Fold each of these.
Amino acid sequence: MNDFISLIDNSKAGKLGPAIKLAVQSLLEIPSEALSRTHRETAMKALVAHLPGESENAESIIVDYWRSVLALMVKLMERPTFYEVSHVIRWKPCLPR
């Protein structure tokens, strides 16, 4: 589990490779109960670095990747953890008006 999170965390924002896709998919398959608060917080910080606005090449990343990333973010946020408000503020430009 730590290896998957580290892989995402150490990847460059906007760079998508087979290993990153595998890491995201693998984390989606792990039961929520197996993810500690530390795992959830570390994974969220790594995933937020890949959001549009944080990444210069966000347009070049395929939609299926974003679906997986957003699904993982929802899964991570299902359990109570206090995330930094700055993460939500960064999403504001992505939200429909």
Amino acid sequence: MNYTDWMLKEFSTLDSVNSAQTFSYITQAKAETKVLRVVLKSVLMATAITATLLLLAFFDVPAFESVLAWLAYSIAIVIGVFAGAKLEQWLVRRKLTEILRKSGQDGRT
């Protein structure tokens, strides 16, 4: 995701801020949310795989022996990756908003 464009669109006061400062805000937001992002994405993927295993067990499908099981795992992984990316964007945006408010650049459009 292009956080710079998002910031410029959401915060009109950033028009006068140079790109180095904008990059600094993004780097800070990513650094401060790194551990939380990794943990939540890992939990999300583990939950997707576990849910798939439980669903396959419920329908008596052999866990690793059928094409249907592998298809289900593939779908769960794709959904997990997509949801993880959206979660990561949400966390970074939230942290960016917090950082900008603290720095006095909170003029939302």
